[in-house]
Amino acid sequence: MPTSPRFWNLIAGRYARTPVADEAAYQHKLAATRHLLSPEMDVLEFGCGTGTTALHHAPFVRRYTGIDFAPKMIAIARGKATAAGQSNLSFEVARIEEWTAPDHSYDVILGMSILHLLDGKEAVLARVHRLLKPGGLFVSSTVCATDMPRIVTWILPVGSALGLLPLVRRFSDSDLVASHIDAGFVIKDRWRPGPGKAVFLVAQVP
Ligand SMILES: C[S@@+](CC[C@H](N)C(=O)[O-])C[C@H]1O[C@@H](n2cnc3c(N)ncnc32)[C@H](O)[C@@H]1O
Questions:
Q1: From the CA of 135, how far away is ligand 1's center (Å)?
Q2: pLDDT, tens digit, for every residue of 122-180?
Q3: CA nearest neighbour of 140 among 118, 156, 119
Q4: Can you list the domains of the chain with their CATH numbers?
Q5: What pTM did the predictor assign?
Q6: Residue 2's CB: how many other CB atoms inside 10 A?
Q7: Does 45 contact ligand 1 (Cβ within 6 A)?
Q8: Which of the chain's ends, N or C, has fewer CB atoms near its CB within 10 Å?
């Protein structure tokens, strides 16, 4: 059964109000991504949440589309885009697994804090690869649960069973990199702010 947006709809308001857990790492990822963007680019971000990252990057590209399967997340994102008057930015309610755009539509695709939440990251990586133009870039930040302290790997499934946390798929940093390579990407950048932290990757379609 595909994962449900229920958890994310429930927490959308709180998610929007909660400060980023590691501001320094977030700023580093924003800067590293911004460095890859240019004004003629078309960008897709999936699992965009309440649109914070999209609002940072949209002013630097031609067109920026954020998608998320939780309507409450998208409602907040749309409100922020309207308030900012960012006319090249749009948000849609959609699952990445079902997002239909012609092959080679995008210069850059972002998937921030989402690959570990997917039923099948391999199928999504193959889809992302198809959606990118030759030379296109996939930027991601991913929790690699098997590299986290053992106590956290116990807490995650319990929190998920209680409905307090989303279901986090368990894989390692090296599994993540291997999945990208299997999908046909070349890894251009790999950065981890510290042990157990999310892995930031920039992968390129050759
Ligand atoms: C951890 S939040 C990350 C939000 C945002 N990218 C950020 O970094 O703050 C994960 C987001 O992915 C969305 N999501 C989870 N699975 C999805 C899927 N299959 N397709 C689209 N969105 C999904 C959730 O609704 C949620 O907003």
A1: 25
A2: 999 999 999 999 999 999 999 998 877 777 777 777 777 777 778 889 899 999 999 99
A3: 118
A4: 6-204 (3.40.50.150)
A5: 0.95
A6: 11
A7: no
A8: N
